[in-house]
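User: Let's play a game. I give you a shape written as tokens, and you guess the letters that built it. Ready? Here's round one.
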């Protein structure tokens, strides 16, 4: 998920040179909620934090235990906390919620 965010930031002319590369905050809690029910394909909502900036996001993935394939379902990852001045350099960009200004 973080790789997808970083790819979007680096591919955009608006953010490629002004936003930091994000990393998983290994010291923050990661929350996994299973929404798969009795189906063979499991659906999980993942809540995670990134550094710098301690941004908190969530996204949805699927896991097929038969093929052991993990797939990101979310097209965008929703930010759960405010970013304010952290993204001041990209405030006009659609990707501002992902950005931590260099």
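Assistant: Ready! My guess for every position:
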């Amino acid at each position: 998920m973080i790789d997808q965010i970083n790819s979007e930031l680096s591919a955009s002319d608006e953010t490629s040179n002004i936003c930091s590369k994000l990393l998983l905050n290994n010291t923050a809690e990661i929350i996994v909620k299973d929404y798969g029910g009795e189906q063979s394909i499991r659906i999980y909502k993942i809540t995670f934090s990134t550094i710098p900036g301690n941004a908190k996001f969530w996204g949805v993935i699927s896991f097929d235990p038969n093929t052991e394939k993990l797939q990101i379902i979310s097209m965008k990852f929703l930010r759960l906390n405010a970013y304010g001045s952290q993204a001041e350099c990209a405030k006009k960009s659609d990707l501002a919620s992902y950005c931590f200004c260099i």
